[in-house]
Amino acid sequence: MVLRKKEELEKLRNTYPFTLLTGKEFNEITDESELRRFKKNEFLFHEDEDEIELFFLLEGLAKNILHRTNGEQFSVRYYYQGDLIGLMIMLAGGQMKFSVQAKQDCEVILLKKRAFLQVMTNNKAFSEIVLEGIGVRMKTLYNEITRKRNEEDSENIPLFRTRVEAIMNPPIFISQEATIVKAAKRLREVLTTGLVVVDEQQNLVGTLTQRDLLHSIVSGETDQLIKSVMNKQPYKAQYDSFGYDILSYFKDDHVDFIPVIKHEKVVGVLTAESFLQLQDSNYINLSQSIHHTYSINDLTKLAAVNNQLFIDFVEVLLSNNTYAYDVAELISNYNDKIHRQVIRIVLKEMKQEGYGTPPVNYCFIVMGSQGRREQAFSTDQDNGLILDNYEHLTNKQEIENYFKIFAEKVNIGLIECGFPLCSGGVMAKELKWRRSLKEWIIEVKRWVKETDAEEIRNFTIFCDFRPIFGDFLLALRLRDETTDTVQKGKILQLLLMKDTLRFRVPLNPFGLITTSGKTKSVNLKKGAIMQIVNGVRIFAIKNGIKNENTVKRLTELKEKEVLHPRDVNNAKTALHILMTFRIKNNIKQLRSNSLLSNELLVETLTKDEKKTLKEALSIAKRLQQMSEISVGRKRGI
Predict the structure, then answer these.
(1) Distance between CA 403 and CA 408 in Å, rounded?
(2) Which residues cross the membrane (predicted)?
(3) Is residue 448 assigned to a domain?
(4) Residue 118 is part of which domain span?
(5) Domain boundary, last residue among 482, 506, 522
């Protein structure tokens, strides 16, 4: 509706810096302005909308959300009464994706963007105050992005193995008392990206890059000393840091070069070119291809089970003695990328079909082996949705309908990308796996009190949930709200133990491998890997551990002195052995165009392989017995 209430205009008129405007300028901005209201959790505007609005917040509380390339959202700042919303986002020029969501019921004035920018051009005092505020916000944003480094960079195994000292270049020093002209000559002589600025004791005091130098020359500051124009707070890297720890600075923060420190002294520098040798891998090339694929049909060709380059890459990693649980994490991370791109494609499709953008915030979660980051090539879908609490909104039915269609499209897209439907129906398209945060919390508490043998399997899958797209805070809140409840659920833990005992480790009392069927095979997942996973999960639940990954759970259990270091190391070794067998078996099946399965034909193994398998199975059996005894002590509850 057209804004006509004098008191609403007065609130705006009396708010600094609008007090700096002339009457004419104020009228230009507010002419035809509208009063709008948004309910809690509604979006004022979403990243996928074509037009970004400019609002003045009269009442309520809203938050700014930055959308990262790995599918995660995080809140950059809050907007309070009297704040201007949208201008910083417009000035970002599409380089970053933002949304703004109401955290309380909000009342805003919609302003005319073109008139606002024109007034900024004409009124210098007003413009300076507005831009100063934006500068502060952008600095906060920069610091937040720096703190939350891109997790995708850590998924490249070569980067895990390479420390920066192996790829750094010799540093070129210059005194902070030198002139800009001398620095320019020095850069020309050595043809480097930047110089390391040091004091008389050769301590690092700053850096000077080609960009800094050009800025000084353009500004006519050639007669100044380096100390007046250098970057006094440069990024630094410890010589023993891993490459993946540093790469994100170059990719995300547009840093030119970084000094490498050893015992407080500069021993080298890193440039973007330093990482070229590490980035020349099929995995990174395929990852980039996924992010730039805009149809499900094309994405299918990049799926792990369909792409020969990816299969070869995994095989090379195993042949280089990479831990199999690290390889499984890489496969899971790759599958995460496929999932995220399917979601992005579906979001675009929803908009094109007239459904618009998501009406409330949400988080897409994966569960089971993908949630634990322990996938092989043989896997199906285990996923769900956490919706921001929406029951109080008038368009409740519209919200439910949107996410029903959205989830169905995502699940269908994932089928096409090589992820079969879950035989147990654990998928976001099913209503029981698509709930608001409040409903999820209630459901988990019900599971703890009332679950039966049939439902316990669903809870086992759910336990390992992990967010991969959307508002990750919803998943974190769900984990925080339910960890204590699950930890105290002794009956639930007993049922979890009984469920895992449905499958015994295929090792008889004499230590011999027991096979099944005419093929004389062992199911590596059900009969071995899951016995370790399930046992560790039970210990993790009993001790309030929130991490979903088995190896990381084992590490925490050792730190808490719940498990002996020897048992932890044995369990990790067994996981490595069993996962190696499983992934290699899957690769063999893919190469022979056989159906993927977890059945390992024992007769095809060499004598040494059988011995190794038997050792891993004995460790799995011991862990199963340990967890059974641990839970059995509580049978009287």
Answers:
(1) 8
(2) none
(3) no
(4) 1-148
(5) 482
